[in-house]
Amino acid sequence: MDAMQIKNGILAAMAAMGVLIANALGGWDNIMALLVALMVLDYLTGVMLAAFWKRSPKSETGTLNSMAGFRGLIKKGMILLVVRVAVLLDEALGIDYVRLMAILFFTGNEGLSLLENLGLMGVPWPKFLRDMLEALREHGDAGKDKAGGSETHPYMEPWEHGEGKE
User: Fold this and answer.
1) Which of 3, 24, 73, 161 lies 20 to 30 A from 50 at CA?
2) pLDDT tens digits, residue range 62-75?
């Protein structure tokens, strides 16, 4: 077996894994692509913010912190896990909107977090963009109680379930 066959085998395995993941998340459509793009951009701008501007709110010194980076990756993974649960709910209930609502909520969150990172870098952005992202998050959030607050687990801080700072 030569290097070309090994390379092709690895690429085929990676492609198969991508198909399995996309299928588990309800398919690869435009809204899923947007969520993944925002997740990647939010993570990358967070790393750049800490590395070059030293203004990260995720560490005491504002600089790179491996634990903060690891926690960020875990949170991104948990977002995808929630999307998977939403897909399973759609399938179990014979409906097709739980996944969409979950993705809209997280798209709004990730977009707002990206704008926050850009703002800390000194990059201006138009107000309508923030308004659109907030509307997406609100449109996707079906967990509001009658008083206007979100239902939370008693041991969770608000930012751990999608409210406030990302």
Assistant:
1) 161
2) 999 999 999 999 99
